[in-house]
Amino acid sequence: MSACTPLIRIKDVAREFTLGTTTVQALRGVTADVARGSFQFVLGPSGSGKSTLLYLLGALDQPSRGSIEVDGRQIEKMTLSEKNQFRRNEVGFIFQSFNLLGNLTALDNVLVPFLPVGVKPGLRRRAEELLDRVGLENRKRHRPHELSGGEQQRVAIARALLKQPQLVLADEPTGELDHSTGGEVIGCLRNLNTDHGTTVVLVTHDESYIESGDQVLRLRDGKIVDQQQA
Predict the structure, then answer these.
(1) pLDDT band at residue 168, thresholds of 50, 70 and 90?
(2) What is the layout of strands, in order, in the sheet containing 39-43?
(3) Which has the higher per-residue pLDDT, 40 or 1?
(4) pTM, to two decimals
(5) Where along the chain do its domains lie?
């Protein structure tokens, strides 16, 4: 794929949910591209469809209509096995809730996805290097209850990066943090984007993190109301 080819193509995507006798239209015909290597913000009020779109991009959900291509492959046409492989090998997920295991150290929480198949020394070294990169060089042996919220989110970022994904999907990663700590977390993601060309798609309510050159997509009532470069 050429560097100027969009990493993600979203074409007329709709997502409907049935709640009892009511049909909820979370997304209504969304069409957009996400440039390879971009830092993409997805903005909008609660209920606008931001998280739904993110879950579709990560193959955690299936569109009711339309298509999503990531690196030339249509997600909705993948088999279950192919989706699992795609999520495991190519996408890093970062959520508002840190999803850390309380009985494990920061280092072992980074290694969690690989524990069932065994952790080789090289992988453990890379996990330690990632914790160094996100400023936790002195906190590797600490458990989640010994870490601040910002430190826990950095562990979650390191865990997402261990697989060296081409795409990071972050759903309100600063939602439980104060603004200063949230800025540090966004800084970790920006370093990843700048140093490795990783495409970052970040859902947030807080527009103050946007910088010049970022891509911005705004949703309202399941539709795109604006898409531009900051």
Answers:
(1) very high
(2) 91-95, 167-171, 199-203, 39-43, 215-220, 223-229
(3) 40
(4) 0.87
(5) 8-98+165-229
